[in-house]
């Protein structure tokens, strides 16, 4: 039986497999994110071992530890925020009986093309009823809501669940950003009044802002989507769009005002205090954590690789002992001591004690996006100090052990603040405005998101939106910025139909 | 549009729906757990709103918040333990292409009868290849392991994932304990040597002990399963069995020594330091959190309802303000103050300020299994004190506000210790030993788990096990206690075949 030894092998790796870890130590990731985003993204997913695309079923991804740990942390932060706003977690089945799936007409029309069906089981039993792999859980949850809700006392009902959903997606898939299985949180809420439901969509947008911007540092605009681009079955859809480095929109969480469309279809009624029965009002909200993860790394990374926000980094502190022959034992012991110290402070910390050269380790962990690097050499060990390197600014700070706690805290917080600021600056630099169709064409070519006067986001505006798509190589009307204060003047017309503009919308290409 | 008011309605609830919350306040759960366990379990699942069985697809359960919050906490504790032992999380797809599923012969034979198949998608597309809803993930993960592992440097590989698995289970299903979808963690590990793989199965058993016994207070015996009762594809299976209150075994986590059976089938090879290629050795381990939850509430509950271990309770502290007319405002304010205090200490705390009578609230939260109740009346508010009630012993302690922190800590820890002790005592009281077949028959009737001398747990012992099953109304040979020190004497024979006993096994009925 073969024994594991620590000696290096000189054998060459067979070509069809990954290179062994030691040989791949010379990771000098260097791809221009802005001018070559597509390659940057594909390569960083592979090089940082975020995900493996070789599972063999189109659109189904294998998440490796480096992405999984961050994603779990992101779930924690998102769920905590939902809890704080009074939502409670539930777990519903992954499959939906076809008869339930069919209940709401718009919904079934919108989602049927995207459903995977479970039809058989065991050694050839045909199921009595087909089961949909849930593409979203309205039709799983609402039949139970109908049983749970009786009177106004049962309202509001604010529940969410975390898990996988499945969509038989026709478009080409990309790791994290678009797949046939993705992992998300979906929150489904019921209220006695439409006003409360509307207030919930605003709360959802606040939650998006608190978590996605506040914790993950992602800039975005919150749009009210045009009528022709709503969630299947919704009264209104509000969706947050961020920008990819190539200037394309990426849709992040959307919240949907369902009104009483689903409650009428699913018989979700409540009795008021006079004993009268009413259809309830509903909302749903769906942050797709896998996609937000993809957006987050795209937004924050640089040409040397990933940069994780401090709070969600799989490893927050990497300790690199620099072992000269003299005092190697002392340096090692000091590294262990600092690790224990940092661990006791609650940080995710790791020592790279592999036999690679320190410079190689630096490149490697920079590529992996670890926020802070603790360099420990003979001098540091002797003097009880440590050199801390910050991934985003590449600045080094020499501090004493007693300053470690405050310095890590500060540098972590400053990194978060600074990558958020940088992302926001880039985002803002991509916003522009056009006063004529020619200007719009030009700006779209320059990969901007362009604000223009627009006839209407009601259904009568759809032909103009189709026209835009045709003329501008797929550019789309994303909707009205919910914070928009500006009202079109009398001179402002829709570029396409020439009618008086009723609103301002943003136009851009979707990722 | 109806407004939500706080007045009570006099209307009667329609019969087909749940009674409204205020009307159900008189919860006096009172079912003998030991003499009527089946009813106890069914009723507590319903009354405590742990799960709803009305989803409409056999064996698929809706987990309500009261179970979901505890289950999430249980996942956290289990995952933390795995992390501490050097395992890393991953997320694999929920579906497995049929060609991968077919690779290991024993595995495919064992699991094929239990698989749900996805065959179509969208508006009638037939998938090129059928996709199995994963019943377990060996065949999902190992093709990737084959790509990831090249040399001894890539070993050991210790990965786990948390999520749903699906089994087209023929037996009748019970909430949490047996279903067609259940939620678990599965850990899949690869080593260079068989010795390391064997050591991993021992580590897995240690993890089971640390978490299930140490944190959840569940007593169990760790068995080596007989050859005829192994995981499909395993060399050996080790499984923890606890006891239900009716004296039946419930199987909890099992760990499987896979040897090189799967690695040979899936081409998981590594090169040693001489450049020679070897098949790797594997283990897998699968704690089913949903089932452990079911076992945990069955083990700890009493005739008045649930008792949660302090650490996993959805709410750890329930504050009941007793509002006499005088000083009601003061009592309310004091309740809020204590809540903030407890929250700042990191506890999950809730004030029941509904308009039910205090006595009703007591019963209700006792039934829900909240470990500690803080009673606050006029006297407490005036004197800055609080009466703490412990769910398991029903003892009340009056403490000052300044003693709150230590008292909660102590009472929580003591509750955990004491319910664990009680569970262990019950478990031990059900263990017995038989020296003749007649004694065995008698003891099994008395709902014991019985240790007997046995011919062999190799395949040649299977006919005797079948005979036991026939003669003892389904009683099963559970295997050898891995801690068993006793060796059968020469006089000890197998009760069935009369051959010299080779070991001692436990026999009992399975849940």
Gyration radius of chain A, to the nearest Å? 26 Å
The CATH topology annotation of the largest domain in chain A reads as: BirA Bifunctional Protein, domain 2
- CATH top level class name of the largest domain in chain A: Alpha Beta
Most extensive interface: A-B, 89 and 87 residues
Q: Strand fraction band of chain A?
A: 15-25%
The global form of chain A is: globular
Q: Which quaternary structure do these chains form?
A: homodimer
- CATH architectural grouping of the largest domain in chain A: 2-Layer Sandwich
Helical segment tally of chain A? 14
Rounded average pLDDT of chain A: 93
Class by SSE composition of chain A: alpha+beta
Number of strands of chain A: 23
Write the layout of secondary structure elements.
Two copies of one chain form a homodimer.
Chain A lengths: L36 H11 L3 E2 L9 E2 L1 H20 L3 E2 L5 E3 H4 L3 H7 L4 E6 L3 E9 L4 H11 L8 E10 L14 E11 L2 H20 L7 E4 L11 E8 L5 E11 L1 H6 L2 E3 L5 E3 L1 E5 L3 H12 L16 E5 L6 H17 L4 E3 L6 H11 L3 E5 L1 H6 L1 E6 L5 E5 L3 H26 L1 E3 L3 H9 L3 E6 L7 H10 L4 E6 L21 E6 L3
Parallel strand pairs in A: 3-7, 15-16, 15-17, 20-21
Antiparallel strand pairs in A: 1-2, 4-6, 5-6, 7-8, 8-14, 9-10, 9-22, 10-11, 11-14, 12-13, 17-18, 18-19, 21-23, 22-23
Describe the structure.
The structure is a homodimer of 511-residue chains. The first copy, chain A, is an alpha+beta fold. The first copy, chain A, has three domains: 62-299, BirA Bifunctional Protein, domain 2 (2-Layer Sandwich); 317-411, Rossmann fold, CATH 3.40.50.800; 431-508, C-terminal domain of ProRS (Translation Initiation Factor IF3, 2-Layer Sandwich), CATH 3.30.110.30. Chain A contains 14 helices and 23 strands. Chain A has an eleven-stranded mixed beta sheet. Chain A has a five-stranded mixed beta sheet with strand order 16-15-17-18-19, with helices on both faces. A three-stranded antiparallel beta sheet of chain A has the order 4-6-5. The two termini of chain A are 52 Å apart. At the A-B interface, strand 2, helix 2, strand 3, strand 5 and strand 6 of A face strand 2, helix 2, strand 3, strand 5 and strand 6 of B. Strand 5 (116-121) of chain A pairs antiparallel with strand 5 of chain B.
């Amino acid at each position: 039986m073969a024994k594991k030894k620590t000696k290096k092998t000189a054998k060459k790796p067979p070509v069809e497999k990954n290179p062994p870890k030691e040989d791949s130590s010379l990771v000098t990731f260097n791809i221009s994110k802005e001018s070559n985003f597509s390659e940057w993204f594909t390569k960083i997913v592979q090089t940082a071992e975020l995900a493996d695309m070789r599972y063999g079923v189109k659109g189904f991804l294998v998440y490796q530890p480096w992405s999984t740990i961050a994603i779990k942390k992101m779930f924690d932060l998102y769920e905590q925020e939902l809890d704080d706003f009074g939502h409670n977690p539930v777990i519903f089945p992954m499959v939906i009986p076809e008869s339930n799936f069919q209940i709401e007409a718009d919904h079934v029309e919108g989602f049927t093309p995207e459903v995977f069906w479970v039809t058989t089981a065991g050694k050839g039993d045909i199921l009595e009823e087909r089961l949909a792999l849930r593409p979203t859980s309205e039709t799983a949850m609402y039949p139970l809501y109908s049983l749970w809700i009786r009177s106004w006392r049962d309202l509001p009902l604010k529940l969410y669940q975390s898990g996988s959903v499945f969509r038989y997606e026709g478009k080409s898939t990309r790791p994290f950003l678009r797949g046939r299985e993705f992992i998300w949180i979906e929150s489904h809420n019921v209220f006695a009044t439409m006003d409360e439901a509307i207030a919930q969509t605003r709360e959802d947008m606040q939650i998006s802002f608190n978590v996605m911007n506040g914790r993950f540092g992602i800039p975005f605009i919150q749009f009210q989507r045009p009528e022709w681009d709503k969630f299947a079955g919704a009264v209104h859809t509000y969706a947050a769009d961020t920008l990819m480095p190539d200037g394309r929109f990426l849709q992040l969480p959307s919240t949907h005002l369902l009104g009483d469309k689903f409650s009428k279809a699913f018989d979700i009624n409540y009795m008021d205090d006079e004993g009268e029965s009413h259809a309830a009002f509903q909302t749903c909200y769906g942050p797709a954590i896998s996609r937000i993860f993809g957006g987050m790394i795209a937004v924050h990374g640089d040409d040397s690789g990933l940069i994780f926000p401090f709070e969600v980094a799989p490893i927050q502190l990497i300790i690199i002992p620099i072992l000269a022959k003299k005092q190697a034992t002392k340096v090692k012991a000091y590294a262990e001591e600092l690790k224990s110290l940092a661990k006791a402070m609650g940080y995710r910390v790791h020592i790279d004690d592999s036999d690679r050269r320190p410079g190689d380790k630096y490149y490697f962990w920079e590529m992996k996006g670890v926020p802070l690097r603790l360099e420990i050499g003979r001098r540091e060990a002797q003097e009880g100090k440590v050199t801390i390197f910050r991934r985003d600014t590449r600045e080094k700070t020499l501090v004493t052990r007693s300053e470690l706690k405050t310095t890590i805290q500060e540098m972590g917080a400053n990194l978060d603040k600074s990558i958020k600021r940088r992302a926001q600056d880039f985002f803002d630099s991509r916003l522009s405005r056009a006063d004529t169709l020619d200007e719009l064409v030009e700006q779209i070519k320059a990969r901007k998101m362009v604000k223009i006067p627009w006839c209407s986001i009601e259904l009568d505006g759809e032909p103009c939106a189709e026209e835009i798509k045709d003329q501008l190589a797929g550019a789309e009307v994303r909707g009205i910025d919910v914070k928009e204060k500006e009202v079109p003047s009398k001179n402002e017309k829709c570029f396409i139909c020439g009618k008086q503009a009723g609103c301002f919308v943003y136009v851009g290409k979707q990722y």
